[in-house]
Amino acid sequence: MTRPVTRPVTRTAGVAGQPITHSLSPLIHNAWIAAAGLDAVYRAHGPADAGEFEALVARGRAGDLRGLNVTAPFKEQALALADVVSPVARACGSANLLLFDPGRVRADSTDGIGLMAALAEQAPALEVNGRPVVVLGAGGAARAAVAALIAAGADVAVMNRTRARAEALAADLGARVAGPTGLETAALVVNALSVSPGIDLSVLPDDAVIMDMTYRPLITPLLAAARARSLTTVDGLAMLIGQARPSFRALFGIDPPDTDVRGLALIALGEAGQ
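Predicted structure:
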């Protein structure tokens, strides 16, 4: 009697957010999948609302998906839907990675890893341990940045238009609220807002580093102004790729291959040559 051939099951993962058409995550992960020769696929999912996102997570819990990266506006809901939460995700108050086991959802956050990887790549001379850092914003992205920088030993201050939100974030994570002269001694300023902040870069030290989590456009007005002052800049694409590496490892069980995903992403952004 001939036994049927058992074929490997394609490992399916993806990214969920709204809007999602702009996401570069499928391009990055599928480039790594192709280079590694994996029987896998990584797709974009655009749930219209919280109910559809919960249904997508239920599919993962049922075994249809290996995992999901999660972006706005579902990161906090992703954390709430998980059965097991990593200490990092709990500190951030949100999750950008869900991993599905039979009947169980695990939540993690790789955003902080991505931030620190971007700094190491594009500002290798920067040392944050024991130095003042200012994070602009008080949302999920800011929380991930603050948690990672505090873990690296930085003296982190939060600056936000709504002071109460900055105070709440600072109290949760052990940071400070930035005072009126907070920028004057900052070794690093991280913009975790979705818009360009109205800050005066002229007061910054000459060796300060400016990072913007946004990557559309790659050189944001904040980064352009920083470059005009000859300050070191770190772009959001470096962070995106930095957080994607541990996500890929968690989703597919191997390290990402040595492939120029930044070059591919720059072409997709219309920023080739940057």
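Summary: The mean pLDDT is 94.
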